[in-house]
Description:
Layout: E1 5-10, E2 13-23, E3 26-29, H1 37-47, E4 58-62, H2 67-77, E5 80-84, E6 96-100, E7 109-113, H3 115-121, E8 125-133, H4 137-148, E9 152-162, E10 171-177, E11 179-181
Parallel strand pairs: 4-5, 4-8, 8-9, 9-10
Antiparallel strand pairs: 1-2, 2-3, 3-11, 6-7
Amino acid sequence: xxxxxxxxxxxxxxxxxxxxxxxxxxxxxxxxxxxxxxxxxxxxxxxxxxxxxxxxxxxxxxxxxxxxxxxxxxxxxxxxxxxxxxxxxxxxxxxxxxxxxxxxxxxxxxxxxxxxxxxxxxxxxxxxxxxxxxxxxxxxxxxxxxxxxxxxxxxxxxxxxxxxxxxxxxxxxxxxxxxxxxxx
Length: 184
């Protein structure tokens, strides 16, 4: 580990993550799976045995960084998935909308579930997939949407759990990711 980077070891591979200041006094190691096929595939393989396969009907993820992982898991589980979007699109029918604040975004975010997906989710058992869980705010917001859609959350999975944030023992994850006091 250096002043500018953190060495992450996950799913049998290493990645150098750049440390980024996200708030006064708070520095995180920036984890981005997008475009890293080896990382996505290895993490999907490592998460798969932790998941309750027989209890799942669909997977749900947030746009955008969790999409490739969710796709890889869905292929392995022979399931489809739904993506919660970050804005209302003109093609959406009767969308459900909630707001959430994330430590990696400066302003509140909108999370949107298309009415078409809402109907697909009704009465279904779902697994919520994310790349990193920090405070759990995004998970709670997605679960609020899923509750309105009358879906049951069976499991929550992520590659990383950021230390000092979410304390849900219900999260299935591969590794913890430290946060760093500014200046260290």
